Amino acid sequence: MSRRRLRLPVVGQPSESDADDPLRLLRGGMFARRFAIGLGVLGLVWIASSKVRARGVANEHIFVHTQLLSSASLAPPKPVVEDIPTNTAPPKPVVEDIPTKTAPPKPLVEDIPTNTAPPKPVVEDIPNAGVPAMPPIEDLPTNDSAPAMPPIEEISGDTGESVDRFGRRRTKTGALVLDESAGETGDELGLPSEHLGALDAGGFFDPGAFGDAKVVKRKAYVHLMPGIPNEVFFASAVLILLLSFGLFERQKPGKDPRSRVRRYWKRDLMRSPFISRLVKSRWFQPAIQLPVVIGFVAVIVIGLVGSQEPGRNLAPVLTWNVWWIGLIFMVLVFGNLWCMMCPWTAIPDWFMRRSFTAVRKVRSLGRKYPRFKLWMWPAIILFALVTWLEIVFDAANRPWLTSVLAIFMVVLSWLLLLVYERKAMCRYVCFVGRVSGQYALMGMLELRRRDNDTCRTCKTKDCFHGSERGYPCPTHEFMGAMNENQYCTLCTECVKSCPEDNISFNVRTSGADVLYPHRSKIDEAYMAILIFIVSAFHGAAMIPLWMEWENALRGALIDGQVAVLGSDVLGFGGTYGGTMTFTVMMFGCIVVPGILYWALCRIMHAVSGRPDVTTRKLFIKFAYTLLPIALFYHLAHNAVHVFWEWSKLRRLVSDPLGWGHDFFGTARAPLTALWSPESIWYIQVGLVIIGHIYGIYVAQREAVRVYKGDRRAAFRAHIVMMVGMILMSLLSLWLLAQPMFMRTADI
To answer: What integer best gives the mean pLDDT of the chain?
Structure first.
């Protein structure tokens, strides 16, 4: 008996006609084996010679994790004047054209003009041996073609802090030093006037005795978290390439991606009598909302009245480190559960209904929301705007701004509830709801109909119109036609309203909505693309390399204006120059990837051989296949913040307002990672790989649906899309390999 040939692990059965099989070359042939073995050997050789780094470290601020503690190359050079001994004659100058007797020695700076001599100030601590002293460093003229060196008083030799061209300060290990306001650097003497008044009123201390008191303030730092090491980065990149070309899957008979019959595992929680009574109770949603609303109001109060020093206020940590980061993990497991407990709509809703539980008509103008063709554009614009505000104004380190943003969302929800019918905020405007709605397509909770015929023959449509038992669907969803979690807020009003008890509350497998035919619109496609772009942009904006890019672009814009126009006409060198530069970079980071995705769709259209399938259709349909990659990169990005920064809660729960309390004895607890760095790295890599493989699988099914079973056209389009997904996943790994600033500061 002949020995069976070894084949690649391709799922599925061979077709009856191998001649029509577009995967024939890759299915167990010599090409597939040689390609996989060659690529694997190349990757192993690359990993074995792992002295290769993601980028050079000479004279740079970006290092992999093993280099974070090596600070010698980051420390600013000491000025030459400090090396001159005070008890002996100054050393002979090293420049040959400087006279040794009468002319003063020139400092070792290359850009000192040779046609003029600097003044000769007298320095008392250098013996006068007939040679005048070296002039101060800050008085030396500089070359016009080179960027000016920061003043020497802004570089501390003790702490190793450095200042870039535009005044940003960093420690020798790369941590960002937050700007300190005037009077907080320890230079002012005396006590504030209110303190002097209190001392004078007490009559025990003489206020004049504190005239020489010095204000001492600890600095706030935004520390760096290490990225994944180079060996893990390169091994993961090779694994992604191998899995991408080795896991092509053919559809088995009976599992056509075009079929609208949804076969996936699910379990109806409403089959339990206890859960059924619980969900149908009018107190079910308010009981979940009340604790969230109480915590939400507490965050607003703490942010406004507590200490405004970064790292000493609980509000930013709860908002940006716990809620915003934990929200993505919540969506993967529980779907749109946040929309169910959202305090932004709960507060105005209770006031306008005048009850927590009673079904009453909401007093509003009840206008129809304008039926624009692109309904989700307000949420898209608000998403980009809030991202810009968060980073530009550093909301994560400004407690009052965090509270103001929270109040703004409540006011916006209230205004929309007053003007329009139902909850236009949830359907069209709320960026958090739309982001979580897109990710909820991958979620594991759903509300669905049990029987299609029951909904089809229903006369009242109470789930949509409402009844005395429950309110109408706040997002205008009809349960008889709803097959996705996109707009479902899990409010369970349909469960209470349905007279036939035809609504199920299911636990299901993840990603069921994107595996089967689903609704698709151009605005939803733009949002799906923007989610990945903003996630990657947010990760890029938190690495030190971003500062180098920003400084380089800002300097180039200033120098270009000076060269062409004679001055900085646009003001990039002024107070708001950094904000303007960041805005330009953010605009480019949003627009350029969108253009690249459109170009990818054009290539798919060209190579498919099917001119009837337009580029616009490909743009819309394949945008949803990016959601697995976006979600799992978002999870990997947030994982490092979870395991590195959630330990800040131990400190702040003992002193939430930053007033010096220590309620639980943890106010001075050390800031440590919850898990070892190695565990965090492998979790991040695993998430990226899972998202990549899931995205390729979803894209293949979508290609078969788009081309209606034309396997050749689907294969060609899928190959192009797969190359784009490989590049996206490699970008995700590269971002995770960079050291990253923490979201909130520490003292």
So the answer is: 76
Distance CA 100, CA 97 (A): 9
Residue reference for tokens 């605009």 = 587
Q: Global pTM?
A: 0.72
Q: Tell me the C-alpha distance between 395 and 39, whole Å.
A: 45
Task: Work out the burial of residue 452: count CB atoms within 10 Å of its CB; fewer than 13 is exposed, 13-18 middle, 19 or more buried.
Answer: exposed
Q: What is the pLDDT of residues 597-607, one digit of tens each?
A: 999 999 999 99
- Partner residues linked to 740 by β-bridges: 225
Give Cα separations from 710 to 259, 571, 605, 734 (angstroms): 15, 56, 14, 36
Angle at 619 between CA 616 and CA 624, to 5 degrees: 140
Neighbour count for residue 548 (Cβ, 10 Å): 14
Angle at alpha carbon of residue 360, lines to 357 and 365, rounded to 5°: 130
CA distance 270 to 299: 35
CA distance 691 to 511: 11
User: Quick one: tokens of 372?
Assistant: 């624009």
Give the pLDDT confidence of 654-664 residue by residue, as tens digits.
Answer: 989 988 888 88
Q: For residue 484, give the DSSP letter.
A: S
Tally Cβ neighbours within 10 Å of residue 406. 19
Q: Across residues 643-653, what is the average pLDDT?
A: 82
User: 711-736 and 522-540 helices cross at what angle (nearest 10)?
Assistant: 30
Pairing mode, if any, of strands 503-508 and 221-222? unpaired
Joined tokens for residue 489: 């807020």
- Beta-carbon count within 10 A of 694 CB: 21
Q: How far is CA 554 from CA 58, 167, 503, 542, 629, in A?
A: 23, 13, 57, 18, 32
CB proximity list for 302: less than 8 A, separation 6 or greater:
313, 314, 315, 399, 403, 656, 657
What three-state secondary structure class fits 137?
A: helix
Distant-in-sequence, close-in-space partners of 428: CB < 8 Å, separation ≥ 6: 369, 375, 376, 378, 379
The tens digit of pLDDT for each residue in 251-277 reads 443 466 777 778 888 999 999 999 999
> Does an H or E element contain 266, and which?
strand 266-268
At 48, is the secondary structure helix, strand, or coil?
helix
In terms of DSSP H, where are the helices of 203-323? Answer: 230-246, 273-280, 284-305, 314-316
Length of the chain: 747
**Could you tell me where the beta strands, DSSP code E, fall in 383-522?**
445-449, 503-508
Please tell me the predicted confidence (pLDDT) of residue 455. Answer: 92
Are 174 and 739 in contact by the 8 Å Cβ rule? The answer is yes
3-class DSSP assignment, residue 472:
coil
What letter does residue 79 receive in the DSSP assignment? P
Q: Would you state the structure tokens that stand for residue 539, as one six-digit string?
A: 């990760």
For residues 135 and 107, is the Cβ–Cβ distance under 8 A?
yes
Q: Which helix (H) or strand (E) holds 222?
A: strand 221-222
Cα 316 from Cα 304, distance rounded (Å) = 11
For residue 70, pLDDT beyond 90? no
- Would you say residue 65 has pLDDT above 70? no
